[in-house]
Amino acid sequence: MLIIFLILGLIVGSFLNVLVYRIHTAEELFWDRSKCPHCKAQIRWFDNIPVVSFVILKFRCRDCQEKISWQYPIVEIFTGIVFALIGWKFFVLIDTASWLPTAFYLFAVSSLISILVYDYLYLEIPGSVLWFSIFLTIIFGLYSDGMSLLSLENNALNLLDTKIYPGVLGAMIAFIFFFSLSFFSKEKWMGMGDAYLVIFLGLILGWPEILLALFLAFFLGAFYGIIAIALKKKKMKSQVPFAPFLVMGTLITLLFYTPIINWYFSLFIG
Ligand SMILES: [Zn+2]
To answer: 30, 123, 127, 136: least surrounded by Cβ within 10 Å?
Structure first.
């Protein structure tokens, strides 16, 4: 079953590469055939197979021989792996109630990966993708809570057991924290785009899970910074996009929150 999620992820990853590029160049999103960004030749359908075509073409465009960016297969493989993990974590074939959450989380991680790539390439967060995703996440939360309410006999749903309440709480706290960082540093420490991004992350993860995601983001960011400075790739002051770290922290939290927390507390209990 997981192989199906993996293949679906490879295909979606291939689409996300195109999506990011087309949002940036403001091109038609869906019905145009893919073109080589260098020579503009249309890419033949048999050259458009995720990962496989890349290897067969020996990393070059068939028409102009220009090198194809490593970004393409990396994003495809990464999306494939994340899709397989979402399938492993949320999907149960015989439990139809798991289908909609699975579909939602596949959408959410696709959106997160496109934001990661976009910010990495262009130092900016694509507002259209972000606000649409926030809107859909709220709809999903309300729908899930509505369904849970209907399935309960006494209609007594604990607030903390809902999706929407911890989601909004996590989103608000994270937003206030990042908004302050951005506002008081005049966007030197943190961009305003990151403050809007954590609204989405808070809604997906909820409170207190969002805390782990933010902690991991700062940890990964600091780790990357130390390595980059040690390798003299970056100077102390050079601008590093932060959304990739926020997205990585969120993906890790979404998939492995419970084992990480259990491991963390086991350190103290022994
Ligand atoms: Zn070309």
So the answer is: 30
